[in-house]
Write a structure and sequence with these properties.
Structural class: alpha/beta
Number of strands: 14
Shape: globular
Number of helices: 14
Strand content: 15-25%
Oligomer: single chain
Order of helices and strands: EHEEHHEHEHEEEHEHEHEEHHHHEHEH
Strand order of the largest sheet: 2-4-3-5-12-6-13
Amino acid sequence: MSAARPLTTLRTVAVIAALPLLLTACGYGADSDSDDGKKAEVAADAKKLSSDTVKIGYFPNLTHATALVGVQEGLLQKELGGTKIAPSTFNAGPSEIEALNSGSIDIGWIGPSPSINGYTKAQGKNLRIISGSASGGVKLVVNPKKIKSIKDVKGKKIATPQLGNTQDVALLNWISEQGWKVDAESGKGDVSVVRTDNKITPDAYKSGSIDGAWVPEPTASKLVADGAKVLLDESDLWPDKKFVITNIIVSQSFLKDHPDVVEAVLRGSVKTNEWINANPDQAKASANKALESLSGKALPANVLDPAWKSIAFLDDPLAATLDTQAEHSVASGLLDETDLKGIYDLRPLNKVLKAEGKDAVDDAGLGVK
């Protein structure tokens, strides 16, 4: 992957025209649902912060385990005291951005591409990225009977979740680095890029309509359980094997009006990540229980275990890698170059990290002044 620059990206004729279709999140469940799963009760004598409630959004997906576990275990609610969490789940990045823009949610866990596109479309006036949450958890998995090496990918049909989403851009960039040509919008070329909803990708693989997929977890491990093999782990393409797959965003108005609530959510996120990393087996089971509550079906061990191992949970937003992902979108021809300065406000997170005795994190020159 190319080195990051402080200047980047994103507005595009292709993507803006297709925005309602773009950037699905790799989740399972309804597009937007009230989360009626088990949550910690608010203590009767708990003190409210500046808002009675905080409306949070996330996807029923392992790469959003900070939110899944934080809600499931009551770790977020504990930091909020008498301010109640009102959670909602989403499958699509645009629908979560729309919810943030309309005030239906205040804070959300979401991928880098929807964050960039949402920020750009609103001309930098709607959201800020305030924390990282997860890295990794994306793989190129293939039919081993048809693809035995990198060179065999040429001429094959490879699925991504949707035109312009984070994995789609990564695959297009990787194809370009191999010296192959693909029309980004149509997906036609030396490799056929087939945009396929993650929920039906396993069936597409079984039917033979695709030869592989560049997808996040747990879809990658579901395909492996169906006989696919991992040809490439995207983490291997990044410095230190780290790249942002999930971050936390907040509406600028909520950040301005309720900084104490934002800090409480961030404290809960930091403590949840700490708990996940200290108790990986317990955290994995908690995330799976939350998924079962949301989708009606838990992940089997042969999917859950390898998927969980490939995801790192962290507070650092890995800002330089978001910048690089934006550059890849520009290079692919999907996006026009614009300035992302101001997309980050890491001051509340760094305040929380300092109080916890942890190191500050960097915004790669893309933060508010």
